[in-house]
Q: What sequence folds into this?
């Protein structure tokens, strides 16, 4: 199974400041079709997960442009350019390249 | 708009069975694969199973193989998860999620399954 490792596991951030979360996979996430199925999800307190970014860097419908994704192969990053109060929650990277699909442990974003 | 509504959760004794349902609307159900993902209390997300758009292909995480069965009824826009021989470690909120080509683009609100004597 592909292991997804996120750092940090907790990220206290000041409102208006940037935040960054790293995700590393135990093997390449490049699929045989050439795509890299690395997605980022947000889970606000008491809510189901919500898709933010798909295939490394594509923002999903309705996701603010302060969220961006980057990376390749086994190393990926989610960045929030200016954190807002509504961004509080847990962020997960997940790979859908190979079965079983696997998630990172989650990074808790909180406001200082 | 896309909606996924899970039901069927509850409290069940170890070794017993439960069937979860997920009713979908807002998209052409028979065109998309669907997943079950679970989240134990206070823990992270764990992928459970997937079924292809036509029901012909299914994959499971190892811990549920032989105990859980994913299925779908395209005439009823409904996804199912039959869970047998339940264990305490199956206690979790179970989410269904739509597969937009290996992208979990829409999620339901979840249904809580508690396995306890």
A:
């Amino acid at each position: 199974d592909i292991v997804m490792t996120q750092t940090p596991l907790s990220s206290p951030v000041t409102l208006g400041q940037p935040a960054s979360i790293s995700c590393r996979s135990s093997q390449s996430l490049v699929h045989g079709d050439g795509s890299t199925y690395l997605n980022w999800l947000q889970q606000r307190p008491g809510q189901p997960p919500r898709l933010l970014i798909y295939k490394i860097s594509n923002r999903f419908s309705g996701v603010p442009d302060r969220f961006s994704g980057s990376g390749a192969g086994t190393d990926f990053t989610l960045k929030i350019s200016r954190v807002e109060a509504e961004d509080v929650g847990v962020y997960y990277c997940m790979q859908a390249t190979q079965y079983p699909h696997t998630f990172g442990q989650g990074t808790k974003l909180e406001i200082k | 708009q896309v909606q996924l509504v899970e039901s069927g959760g509850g409290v069940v004794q170890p070794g017993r069975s439960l069937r979860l349902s997920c009713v979908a609307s807002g998209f052409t159900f028979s065109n998309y694969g669907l997943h079950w993902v679970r989240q134990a209390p206070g823990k992270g997300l764990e992928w459970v199973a997937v079924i292809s758009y036509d029901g012909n292909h299914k994959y499971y995480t190892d811990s549920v193989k032989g105990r859980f069965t994913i299925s779908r009824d395209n005439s009823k826009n409904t996804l199912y998860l039959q869970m047998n021989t339940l264990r305490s470690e199956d206690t979790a909120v179970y989410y269904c999620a739509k597969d937009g080509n290996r992208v979990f683009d829409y999620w339901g609100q979840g249904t809580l399954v508690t396995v306890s004597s």
